[in-house]
């Protein structure tokens, strides 16, 4: 009798769990407008449930940052790997003279946040295309051009995807090489006249830059050196504005929603272990409490739409070179 009751309880528990998973799956599909064929739905649901369990376990154990569902939750690893589109080449430090910003002599603010600055364009979505390098390059140039001239407006990432022969379109690239291309071939064109349309790795288009007037030119760019140096990055951030960088993206990062991201597996010794381009737009510190120390962080802009993370942004630990973010910062100045 006891064995029968035990078996019955197990059956009931499995049925309840299956019903909960089915309800979660239906709710997710409705929220993120997912329409799958009957055959595909089975595999997509399996991916979703796997992520659901990982999210529950993480949020139960981690108090510094949280995970949640987004448009990636039912995707395969092959599909999310496409978004890791950074291919940094060997670092070439430009020899031209430039102002040296004293780090220890100049007072730095305790908090910088360019997210609401008029020169920062809205967060965009790179789609199923490894073009993060183009978004990082253009974001910094847009800001600097606006800061210098007062002219606010979008520049074209699609032109880089289609035309930049120094990089690989939807198959990845290096934001400093994008600046080199723009420096050598005229400049960036208006984003309204050459809008972003890339959705997959197969949609690299034919270059149409010849029919568009140049809207901004590259005057100078370089790395933030020596590296990694969080204080120096803070100084350049104050003087130059948003700074592109490259990071290593772990699977957990895809489902970030809030808090200060960190992961022991993202403290890496190889500086070339990076696969995604982002833009640092500020920094700050989570105050200490009676139970936890203060947490310094970077405010970072992504190119996975405003539906990802915190309105398209994320916080990540500052001062420990988390995910290599302090090894690849660079700046650009409009001509």
UniProtKB/TrEMBL annotation:
It comes from the Eukaryota. Residues 1-17 form the signal peptide. SUPFAM superfamilies: Cysteine proteinases (SSF54001). SMART domains: Inhibitor_I29, Pept_C1. Keywords: Disulfide bond, Hydrolase, Protease, Signal, Thiol protease, Zymogen. The keyword Disulfide bond applies. InterPro entries: Papain-like_cys_pep_sf (IPR038765), Pept_asp_AS (IPR025661), Pept_cys_AS (IPR000169), Pept_his_AS (IPR025660), Peptidase_C1A (IPR013128), Peptidase_C1A_C (IPR000668), Peptidase_C1A_papain-like (IPR039417), Prot_inhib_I29 (IPR013201). The keyword Protease applies. Residues 108-333 form the Peptidase C1A papain C-terminal domain. Residues 25-80 form the Cathepsin propeptide inhibitor domain. Belongs to the peptidase C1 family. This is Cathepsin-l cysteine peptidase. It comes from Daphnia magna. The lineage of its organism: Eukaryota, Metazoa, Ecdysozoa, Arthropoda, Crustacea.
């Amino acid at each position: 009798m006891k064995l029968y009751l035990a078996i019955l309880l197990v059956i009931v528990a499995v049925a309840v769990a299956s019903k909960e998973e089915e309800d979660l799956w239906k709710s997710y599909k409705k929220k993120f407008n997912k329409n799958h064929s009957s055959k595909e739905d089975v595999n997509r649901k399996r991916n979703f449930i796997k992520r659901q369990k990982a999210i529950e376990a993480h949020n139960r154990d981690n108090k510094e940052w949280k995970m949640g569902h987004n448009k990636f939750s039912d995707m395969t690893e092959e599909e999310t790997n496409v978004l890791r589109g950074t291919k940094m080449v060997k670092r070439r430090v430009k020899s031209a003279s430039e102002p040296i910003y004293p780090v220890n002599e100049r007072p730095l603010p305790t908090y910088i946040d360019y997210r609401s600055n008029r020169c920062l364009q809205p967060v965009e979505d790179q789609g199923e295309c490894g073009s993060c390098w183009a978004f990082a390059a253009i974001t910094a140039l847009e800001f600097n051009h606006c800061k210098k001239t007062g002219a606010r407006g979008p520049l074209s990432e699609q032109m880089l995807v289609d035309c930049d022969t120094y990089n690989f379109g939807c198959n990845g690239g290096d934001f400093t090489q994008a600046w080199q291309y723009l420096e050598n071939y005229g400049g960036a064109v208006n984003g309204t006249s050459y809008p972003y349309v890339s959705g997959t790795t197969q949609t690299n288009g034919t270059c149409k830059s010849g029919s568009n007037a140049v809207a901004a030119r590259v005057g100078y760019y370089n790395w933030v050196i020596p590296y990694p140096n969080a204080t120096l990055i803070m100084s350049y951030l104050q003087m130059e504005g948003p700074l592109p960088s490259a990071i290593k993206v772990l699977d957990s990062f895809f489902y970030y929603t809030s808090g200060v991201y960190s992961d022991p597996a993202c403290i890496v010794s190889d500086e070339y272990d990076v696969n995604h381009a982002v833009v640092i737009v500020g920094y700050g510190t989570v105050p200490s409490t009676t139970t936890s120390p203060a947490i310094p962080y970077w405010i970072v802009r992504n190119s996975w739409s405003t539906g990802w993370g915190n309105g398209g942004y994320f916080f990540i630990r500052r001062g420990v070179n988390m995910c290599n973010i302090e090894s690849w910062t660079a700046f650009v100045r409009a001509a």
